[in-house]
Amino acid sequence: MSISKQHDLHKRRFGRNVGVGLLLVSFIVIVFGMTMVKVTGGDISGALQGDRGEQDGG
Amino acid sequence: MTDLSTNSTLETTQPGEAQFGDYFALLKPRVMTLVVFTALVGLLAAPVPVHPFIGFCAILFIAVGGGASGALNMWWDADIDQVMKRTAKRPIPAGRVEPGEALGLGLALSAFSCVFLGLATNWLAGGLLAFTIFFYVVIYTMWLKRSTPQNIVIGGAAGAFPPMIGWAAATGSVGIEAVLMFCLTFMWTPPHFWALALFMRSDYDDAGVPMLTVTHGRRSTRVHILVYTVLLAALAIGTGFTSIGGPVYLAVAVVLNGLFLKGAWEIFRRDEDASEADNFKTEKAFFKLSLLYLFAHFGAILLEAGLARFGLGGWA
């Protein structure tokens, strides 16, 4: 038994929910990016290479 | 600043069922373009380099803060927006968004943008953004707009802050260059808006907003446009000899201020009969030129800053 028929209202709400979802994902990306830049002092690749160097050196 | 956006694509939506675009329209996207551009110029013209991602975040948060103040403005002004043709299709008067939703969105985004701008750059920039939102919403929208014909003059300060915030985000301070960019937008706003008021004549009358055209008459508004344009031209050309100016900026400023002064003089000389006869052609042309005027001046400041990186910009 189907619970309910797909209504135009659901389509409109789907669009709104997708928009909110994308905003939340963008927010996570921004916070992550800001954290990386602040923690590494802006030199993300250098910090990553430093990590590898430490790992290689034991 | 002006917002001429209308949202015709959503007219078929049922009342109370807002779409994502309706909430976005609350943020006055067209005004946001000016905010983003001038803030970007302030950020890039500053002598302190900013990490590209931090710079991107700073501009984003300034834009969100500007959008938040737009949402709060629409919440408070829903009654007069309904009366004016230009704004009647905005989400609240059109019934697509509840006033309380706009208030909630505006407050949440205000807090978010100020805190995150402070975290991303520095608290001077975050504080300036908070003050700008307060100035636009409380001082301009709630107080001045409905109480004095000088509403545009004083309220224009809110739209002038973004380059100063961009500069503060980069440097952590407010220098004379930031003040000059502030003054440029501040002095530009009155003639820009009064030209609009001249050809959107019945809107402000109907809404009871004490625009200069309503309280002091249209002749007085034409005089005011000319006086402010003369003052603006002196400021804009004078800026060409400062540290944010240079030969490119000065050339742009001389040409555009010449055209702007010519437009203001023509507006001053015209009477209502002549304006109505050609459907406010001169006033509309002046308004369009005013948009180009501001973008070109800030574009030239940006170009000078870019050339300076190669040892070419400015007077040095």
Automatic annotation (TrEMBL), chain A:
Protein name per UniProt: Cytochrome C oxidase assembly protein
Q: Which residues cross the membrane?
A: 20-37
Keyword Membrane among record annotations: yes
Keyword field: Membrane, Transmembrane, Transmembrane helix
Automatic annotation (TrEMBL), chain B:
Q: Which reactions does this protein catalyse? A: heme b + (2E,6E)-farnesyl diphosphate + H2O = Fe(II)-heme o + diphosphate
Where is this protein found?
Cell membrane
What's a BP term from Gene Ontology annotated to this protein?
A: heme O biosynthetic process
Q: Which Pfam families match?
A: UbiA
EC identifiers of the protein: 2.5.1.141
Q: How does it sit in the membrane?
A: Multi-pass membrane protein
| Top-level enzyme category | transferase
Does the UniProt entry include the keyword Transferase? yes
The pathway noted for it is: Porphyrin-containing compound metabolism; heme O biosynthesis; heme O from protoheme: step 1/1
What molecular functions are annotated in GO for this chain?
protoheme IX farnesyltransferase activity
What's the superkingdom here? Bacteria
Enumerate the InterPro entries for this protein.
Answer: Protohaem_IX_farnesylTrfase, UbiA_prenyltransferase, UbiA_prenylTrfase_CS, UbiA_sf
Q: Please tell me whether the keyword Membrane is annotated for this protein.
A: yes
Q: How does it assemble?
A: Interacts with CtaA.
The function of this protein is: Converts heme B (protoheme IX) to heme O by substitution of the vinyl group on carbon 2 of heme B porphyrin ring with a hydroxyethyl farnesyl side group.
HAMAP family found in the cross-reference section: CyoE_CtaB
Q: Which family does it belong to?
A: Belongs to the UbiA prenyltransferase family. Protoheme IX farnesyltransferase subfamily.
Name of the molecule in the record: Protoheme IX farnesyltransferase
Which gene specifies this protein's sequence?
A: ctaB
